[in-house]
Amino acid sequence: MNNPNEFRPFAHDFPPLDDDATEQVEQVEHTDAISAAIDFVMRSQLAGVIPRLRRGEPLCILVVPTSADWCGPLAEALEKKLRRRGRAAPFGETLLVIVRREPPRSSSRDEDGVRLVKRLSQGKAVIGISHAPEACLPPPLLRAADITLRLPHLTGRALRKIVTRVTGEDPGRIADELAGSVSLDDIATCVRPGGGGKRAVERLEVTRAARARTRSVAAPPLEALAGYGEAKDWGLSLVREIARYRTGKIGLVDLPRGLLLSGPPGCGKTLFAQALARSAGLPIVATSAATWISSGDGHLGDAIKALRKDFDDARALKPAILFIDEADALVDPAQDGGHGRSWWLSFRAALLAAVDGASSEPGIILLGACNHPHLVDAALRRAGRLDRHVTLAPPSPADLAEILRTQLGEELDEEDLAPLGQLAVGSSGAEIARAVRDARAMARDAGRALTLSDLRAVLAPRETRPASLLRLVAQHEAAHAVIAHVLGRSVAHVSLISRGDTGGHAAISMPQRLSRATLEETIIFLLAGRAADTLLGAGPCAGACSDLLEATRLLAQAQSAFGLGDTLLTVDGGHVERLLLEDAALRARIVTELDDLWQRTLALVGAHSHLITTLAKALVRERLIGGQRLAKILDGAVKHTAEEGPAGTGAAIP
User: Fold this and answer.
1) Is residue 649 part of a domain?
2) Residue 378 contacts residue 359 (beta carbons within 8 Å)
3) With bands split at pLDDT 50, 70 and 90, how would you rate the model's confidence at 13?
4) Most buried of 95, 146, 453, 477 (most Cβ within 10 A)?
C-alpha cells in the first residue's frame, strides 16, 4: 500500500487556463473580478496539491504566478481552501506561506530562510509565492521545492468565463493576446459586477492600449528614416515577421530576441526604437539604467523593483519592445573593486535573471542602446540576450538630405536638398531636427515662409571666430586629412564648421582589419593635428586632447585586449581603462610607444607640410571640402611642387 507521505519531486508548467473542467464556474453566482479570477486559477491549476496539503504531507511548494498582483490574492485563497472548519489550532502552526512581490532586504530574506528550514525540519508544509522567485524568495526554498507550479497567462476563453461570471453577460470571443496582456489589477478595475460583459472587454482594450504608449513623442515610421543601414534592415525584417505572426504563419517563438545599438550621442538610437515600434505596431516599454538605479532611495531593493516592473510591463504587453537606454552604464562589476561592488553584483544577478526570463519567454524584443559598447557587461551580450550588435555610422550627405526631407514634411517639397545634405556633413539626426526647428523659428521671426537660406544659415552659421584662430584650426584639421590621405585612408570630408564642442573635424575611414601596422597608422593620423600645431602653428594646445585620449586608448587595447602588444596576454576590453590606471608597467610601455609614434608623425607632417598648408588655405575659404575636392586640391599641390621644386618645410598660413 502506498504511503501518503511519500512523494516524488516534480516541476510542472501548466497548460493554458482554459480547461474544460472549469466550465461550472459560469454557473456560480456573481462575484467580484479578483475572486472570480483567483477561483478560476485555483480550480484549474492548484486543485491537485490541495488534497495533499490537507492530508498533512510535508511538502515544499513553489508557486510562480505571471505577475506580482497575483501573489497576495493567491496566498489568501490558498489559506481559505486549506483552513478546516471548526479548527482550533492557528493556521500558521501547520503551514508556512512566504509571499514576496518584491526583493526583500537581505536580513528579511535570511529570516525567511531560517523559518523555512525550521518548518521543513519539523515535518511542516511550506509554500512560497512570487512572480520572481529567484530575486524574491529565500534560496533554500528554491532548492528544496518538491513541486513547482508555474502558472500560465489567462487565455481568451478563460477570461471570457471570468467576465461572464462577474457581469452576468457573455462578452463573446476574447483574443488570447488581450487575455495574456492584462494584469489581475486590470481585470479588477475593468470587469465590474453589473457593468456589462462587452463594456468590460472594451475597458480592458483601452487599458492595454494606454499601457502601450511610450513616454516619448510620436516618431516617424521606420521606413521614413535614413542613415540607419544594418539597423534599419534588421528593423524592417522584424516588421515583416510581426505581420507574419499576426496572420498565424509563425509563432512568438520565431521572433528575434535582442539587439544592441551603439553610436555617438544624438545619432538617433531612441528615435530608431520609437520608429520601429510604430512600424511594427508594437507597444514599447522605454527605460534606462539610470531610471532603475535612481528609483526610490537608491536601495538595492528599489532598483530591482523598478527593473522587475519594466520587464513585467513588457511581458504583459507582448509581443512588445523593451528599450533599455544607457546600457553601457551596466558595466561588469568585476571592473569595480570599490565598496559598491557587492551592490552591483546583486543588481547584475537580478538583471540577468530578468533578461533570461524575457529571452526564454517568446514575444519580448530586447533593444539596448549605448554610446560605448565595449563598456557593456559581456554577460549581457551572450547568446539569447543582447547578442546582436549594430553600430550606427554617421549619416552620409545623401542620408542627411533624406533626414532633412523627413523633418521638413511638405515644406520646400520642390527644392533640391542635396547641397544642404553636403553642408550638414558631421551632423547627427538629432542635430538636423534641431536645425529645422531653429530655421522655422528664424522664418517666423521674419514674418515669412521657410526658405533654403534659413536652413543654410542654421546648418553653417556665419563664422565668428578670429581669423588667426580659424587658420590654426584649419591647419590642424588639414593635417589629419593630409596624413590620412598619404597613408592610403579614404577621407570623406574635412570641415571647419563648428558642431557642438568641436571647431572642425575630418571624417576618415577606419580599417576593416586591425593589424599592428594599421593601428599605428591610425595613431599617426590622430597625432597629425598636434604635430601641425607644433611645426606649423602656434605650438601645442588643449584642442588635441581628444586625439591623444583616443591614441592612448588604442595603444592600451593593443597591449592588453587586441593581442597586438609585446605578449599574447589578453583581457576583456572592458577592463582596459582600469588596467591603465593600476598597471605602471603598462603605462610605461604606452608612453614609450607614443613617443616613438610622435617622432614618426612629426617627420611625416614636416615632409608634407606644403600639402597641409595648401589644404588649410582652401579650407578657410570653403569651410567644407568633400573627398573628391580634397583629392583634387592635393593632386594639384603635388603637381605644382614637382614643377616648381620643393617648398621646403612649409610655413604657417599667412
Assistant:
1) no
2) no
3) very low
4) 477
CA-closest candidate to residue 271, choices 339, 332, 218, 196: 218
Grid cell in block for residue 508: 576618415
Mind listing the pLDDT tens digit for each residue in 101-142? 776 666 666 787 888 888 888 888 999 998 878 778 888 898
- Please calculate the CA angle 117-118-120 and round it to the nearest 5 degrees: 65
- CA gap 603, 46 in Å, rounded: 80
Residue after which a domain boundary falls, among 344, 365, 391: 391
The rounded distance, in Å, linking the Cα atoms of 170 and 193 is 13
| β-bridge mates for residue 287, sequence order | 324
Cell 538595492 belongs to 300
403 and 368 within one domain: no
Q: Is 531 helix (H, G, I), strand (E, B) or coil?
A: helix
Q: How far apart are CA 519 and CA 580, in angstroms?
A: 18
Q: Give the rounded percent of residues in the chain with a pLDDT score beyond 70.
A: 86
- Does residue 31 have a pLDDT over 90? no
Q: How many CB atoms lie within 10 A of CB 383?
A: 9
Q: In the predicted model, what is the mean pLDDT of residues 167-176?
A: 91
> Phi/psi zone of residue 327: left (φ > 0), alpha (ψ -120 to 50 degrees), beta?
alpha
85 and 114 in a common domain: yes
User: Residue 528 pLDDT > 90, yes or no?
Assistant: yes
Catalytic sites, residue numbers? 477
In 3D space, the residue among 455, 461, 449 whose CA is nearest the CA of residue 416 turns out to be: 455
Residue 231 sits in which domain range? 222-391
Q: What is the dihedral of CA 205, 208, 213, 215, to 10 degrees?
A: 140
Question: Rg of the Cα trace of the chain?
Answer: 32
How far, in Å, CA of 268 to CA of 266, rounded? 5
CA 576 from centre of chain = 23
Burial code of 48-62, b = ≥16 C-beta within 10 A, e = fewer?
Answer: ebeebbeeebbbbbb
What is the spatial distance between Cα 26 and Cα 35, in angstroms, rounded to a whole number? 13
Phi, psi of 492 (to 5 degrees): -70, -40
If you write DSSP's letter for every residue of 391-442 in order, what string do you get? E-PPPPHHHHHHHHHHHHTTTTTTS--HHHHHHTTT--HHHHHHHHHHHHHH
Angstrom distance (rounded) from CA 268 to CA 569: 37
Same domain, 437 and 489: no
pLDDT in tens, 62-89: 998 877 888 889 988 888 887 754 443 4
pTM of the model: 0.59
Sheet containing 505-508: order of strands: 505-508, 491-495, 624-626
Averaged pLDDT for residues 484-488: 92
